[in-house]
């Protein structure tokens, strides 16, 4: 009878003769995983896909488990929400920086063209009611209701871009136009010329057609608003910056116009109403 040796090799071989041959024992050991914990082998097999039939959900932690999927979804939602918030805030900041307010544009136009802020604000209120997208039945555009031909001329001279509805560009162009008309027609006629057009007002001066009642009503409303704001009705800075005066945009003052007219009161030729023209 064969005597059994009590010691076994740690590597699957027998230290002494045994009932099962050593080679067979090694093959059995290989089939059992070479002594590795079964969990690790199964996990690796499931990760590299080398052995079919393994289920990753039964071992370790995976992104395919319901809990992991929920956690991943929550994380992605948080990151996307944070990104959207940052993007929106960034766009709002850029928009606020690139689009000055009406007050800022009025301030700039007043300083650039020497026209009192109260005048600009009063014209904006009377022309568009403060609506930058306003378009009149006759085609006047924006806050200061510039006609397309006037806008094209002014933006070409002042390099204001192609958007007549832009608040800053429209206010700068409108204020430049006000200054041009003031220099040409003086405090008694520039508002009427702004509303009726310089050609129509010049015709009045030349003894031609009279002003429509609509223009007279407009001038009275603007003057009243200026008076309520505490602005001087016809006080204007006669010192003009060289950069925009040198461009040739503005008509030179008539020889008979004197600087001492700056203290005068705006006067509308009320007697020159054209009865055939309705407001």
From TrEMBL:
<comment type="similarity">
    <text>Belongs to the virb1 family.</text>
</comment>
<comment type="similarity">
    <text>Belongs to the transglycosylase Slt family.</text>
</comment>
<dbReference type="InterPro" id="IPR008258">
    <property type="entry name" value="Transglycosylase_SLT_dom_1"/>
</dbReference>
<protein>
    <submittedName>
        <fullName>Murein transglycosylase</fullName>
    </submittedName>
</protein>
<feature type="compositionally biased region" description="Low complexity">
    <location>
        <begin position="27"/>
        <end position="37"/>
    </location>
</feature>
<dbReference type="InterPro" id="IPR023346">
    <property type="entry name" value="Lysozyme-like_dom_sf"/>
</dbReference>
<feature type="domain" description="Transglycosylase SLT">
    <location>
        <begin position="105"/>
        <end position="202"/>
    </location>
</feature>
<dbReference type="Pfam" id="PF01464">
    <property type="entry name" value="SLT"/>
</dbReference>
<feature type="region of interest" description="Disordered">
    <location>
        <begin position="27"/>
        <end position="63"/>
    </location>
</feature>
């Amino acid at each position: 009878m064969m005597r059994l040796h009590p010691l076994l090799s740690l590597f699957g071989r027998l230290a002494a003769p045994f009932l099962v041959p050593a080679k067979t024992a090694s093959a059995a050991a290989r089939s059992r995983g070479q002594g590795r914990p079964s969990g690790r082998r199964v996990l690796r097999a499931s990760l590299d896909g080398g052995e079919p039939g393994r289920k990753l959900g039964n071992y370790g932690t995976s992104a395919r488990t319901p809990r992991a999927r929920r956690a991943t979804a929550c994380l992605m939602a948080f990151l996307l929400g944070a990104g959207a918030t940052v993007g929106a805030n960034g766009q709002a900041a850029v928009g606020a920086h690139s689009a000055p307010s009406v007050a800022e544009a009025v301030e700039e136009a007043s300083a650039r063209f020497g026209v009192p802020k109260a005048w600009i604000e009063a014209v904006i209120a009377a022309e568009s009611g403060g609506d930058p997208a306003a378009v009149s039945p006759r085609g006047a555009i924006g806050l200061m209701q510039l006609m397309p031909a006037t806008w094209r001329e002014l933006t070409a001279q002042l390099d204001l871009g192609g958007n007549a509805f832009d608040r800053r560009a429209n206010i700068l162009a409108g204020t430049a136009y006000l200054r041009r008309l003031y220099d040409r027609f003086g405090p008694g006629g520039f508002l009427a010329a702004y509303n009726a057009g310089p050609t129509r007002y010049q015709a009045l001066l030349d003894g031609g057609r009279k002003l429509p009642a609509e223009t007279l009503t407009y001038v009275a409303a603007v003057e009243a608003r200026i008076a309520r704001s505490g602005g001087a009705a016809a006080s204007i800075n006669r010192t003009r910056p060289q950069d925009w005066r040198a461009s040739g945009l503005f008509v030179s003052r008539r020889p008979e116009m004197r600087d001492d007219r700056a203290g005068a009161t705006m006067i509308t030729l009320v007697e020159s109403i054209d009865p055939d023209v309705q407001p």
